[in-house]
Amino acid sequence: MTSQAHRFLRGAAATFPAPSAKSAGAAALDHLLFGPGESAVPAAGENAIRLSGCEGAAPSGRGRAAAERAYARLVSGAAPALPHWFADLRRRLAILFGAPGCDVILAASDAGSELIFDALARAALARPVVHIAAAAPERPNEPGMEFAALALRDRYGLPREAGLIDADAARLAEQAIASGKDVVLHVADCSETGLAGPSRAIAGALAAAWPGRICILIDARQMRCEPEQTALDLAAGFAVLMSGSTFAGGPSGASALLLPPALFERVDSFELPDAPAAASAAMDWPPRLRDRLVGDFATLADPGLGLRWECALAELEFYFAVGADLLAQVRAAFAHEIRCHLAAAPALKLTDCGWRAEDSRSLFPILTFDESGRALNPEPLRRALADPTARRGGWTSRGRPVHLGAPLRIGARNALRLSLSAPLVSDVVERIGEGCSFAAAFQPLADDLLEAFALWSDLASAERF
User: Could you give the domains of the chain?
Assistant: First the structure.
């Protein structure tokens, strides 16, 4: 086992530049956790304000420590054999989401998970497949598959009514089936901008109306759904796409598919297209599905993927062990702080006000305007927030880095995304565990939000933006 582990670790690290000032062990771990160029992302321990929990980020301190422990076990030979390590990662995911009987496939990207599900769905269905999924910007425009677009927003960028979205999903599915095709319906549990749709109710109704003709994938990559809901989805026969690179605060490149037993029973054998086959390792898969593959995987194991999931699971397991009432209290306090800051910041406007219960939302797309009411290009603003050296003069040049989610187009304008994440919640919970009151435990996060909004407003009024 030891020589095998060393061989795969050396192979993964060999594709990256040689370490420089860092210790060899820390540099080798970074080479496994990050892709080329990504290791320059500042560590979570820097004095930064991280509100970018809707996309990949530097790992949290808790996640980084978990990866370091796992890496040390691997290189020392103290870790279990690689197949047992990956099996344990999949088992932890299944247990975390209340579905110990489901199959779990690990993947190096959300796009890879979607392509894998496409291959399995095609094996389970008898006809050519049509994918129905939310239109951009509610999901990334991933290459490799064609979609019938389902609009979650109108042409002005406003959220559409749930009934209209469901009606469109039913119409598109009926058209596909009438034309002799089968359907893969993607249900956004929480989209890139915080929307949802079509509903699980219409997904279940369509699957019941055309048994054997429709496969359902719940797109939960933003990780805003509770484990109880995921367990219900799997029990209903829906597959679920998860990510460790968004809400969990892990590095980019940690994705997973949770598959219900009902889907497994419909797949006798399957083939992977070149792209997912090249990015997938044999140990990412449970043995009973791995054995049904026609062809070969590109490699036996991807230790980097395992270490990225160690990061994510350390956060997710801590987060979901917290009581529901306390989690709701943190979310409500976070949302309240944002509403207060927006009320005092004329240049910043939240999209989708009133679309869902304000106390439970945790992803906030925000538009930025100048003093004349002109919408600003958010990308240079985002860079200046993240890099104090890119700021001009005044106290803003001395402020801490503020990391927000990448801008997305909503209607005719682009919004930056501010997001709560598991590490932020866990930090509050840890301070409560150390004896702080809720108010005292939440105060550091409140202070970060105050500084972030002050910088954001000040930069919006600067002439260069």
Answer: 82-320 (3.40.640.10), 324-461 (3.90.1150)
